[in-house]
Design brief:
By secondary structure, this protein is mainly alpha-helical. The chain has helices at about 5-15, 20-35, 40-50, 60-70, 75-85, 90-110, 110-130, 135-145, 155-165, 165-190, 205-230, 240-255, 260-295, 300-310, 315-330, 335-350, 355-370, 375-385, 390-415, 415-425.
Length: about 425
Amino acid sequence: MSAAFFWFLVLLMAFGTPVVFALLLGPGLSLLIDGETQYFPALLARFYNGIDSFPLLAVPFFILAGEIMNAGGITASIVRFAQSLVGHVRGGLAQVNVLSSMIFAGISGSAVADASAIGKMMIPAMEREGYPRPFAAAVTAAAAVVGPIIPPSGIMVLYGFVMNVSVGALFAAGVVPGLLIGLALMGTIRLLAKRYNLPLARPRASWTERGAAFKSAWLAMLLPVVLLGGMLSGVFTATEAACVAVAYALFVTIFVTRNVGKTELASIFKATALQSGVILLLVGAAVTLGWLVTVSGLAQNIADTMLKITDDIYLLLFLLNLLLFIVGMFLDAGPAILILGPVLSPVFIGLGVDPVHFALIMCVNLTIGLATPPMGLLLFVTASVAKESVESIVRALVPFLAVEVLVIFVITYFPSLVLTLPRMLDLM
């Protein structure tokens, strides 16, 4: 079996074919041209088996939990709590934006949901306080990338399923990189405060005010603690944790905040079904691609080619990050992970890179790609909310992207930052 299917895949995507169809048509055309149609039944079986999986149920349930919490007005309480903590410093609303995204990441697990929910509140508020609109949108886009990095994370569930890596280990490994990105962004805002002449600080919130803000937000903030605590202690699996998240979200939004009714639930379930359908089709196609990569020997050929360039693992990791950064400019994080994971993972694991470390390098890099031009989805989401051009947002985004790229290289060359927590929790 030849590796021509990969070039068919690239060609189809270059002509604008939807990713899921490119993933299926590429191998199909390759097998047809090579006269190996006997593999068609195996191809279809792999596609079906890729979707028909109990662990994969975590994806639609996590999406549903995020949609419910978002519709339940949780975002406003999180923003109020973040503002009570850091709203008093110079550039305080920008800091609140980042901190809110970090907290919201533990609930939604989605960069787009983060940018949309936080952006609709924070971008108009920042503009009213005197922040330039492109700057407000840039902060929102840059901060939203922590959504799929701080657990729970939809893309880590996908990666763990397709590449057979522990989802619990991936969740634990994502904590430090997510915090590093958030803190790096907050530090950058502090340095840029004078350059952008950001508004002066508001009065420092009293401990009474902070307590009141925490009281309105603690139920939402408790969700990631419950999920991670349950998974890491072995009480429930990642799939069961997703079901717990939905039950918890329904209880909070229906019986506590009472912001979600029958009408809202109908639209929430519809949106979740559409998102889940797209993702599950992609997963089935990606499992098929992974099988073909193995059978055709493509992974070994790529490994041999890379080793001809250099056998220095540090240089190979640099080239890996460069490739992922470029891919992230044009392809959404989920499809990119599902396409490149089966191709690149065996190569670097064979070179001695830990599977969890490689997974985090890929997930963090491609997630940051959501905020890079020309096709970064977060750019278009924040541009729509801010009613600002993508070009102006990109100019303001450059320093934030620079520090996020720096974090990528830090976690690449210092794997202990990623692996210490999963090892401490005995997940590896």
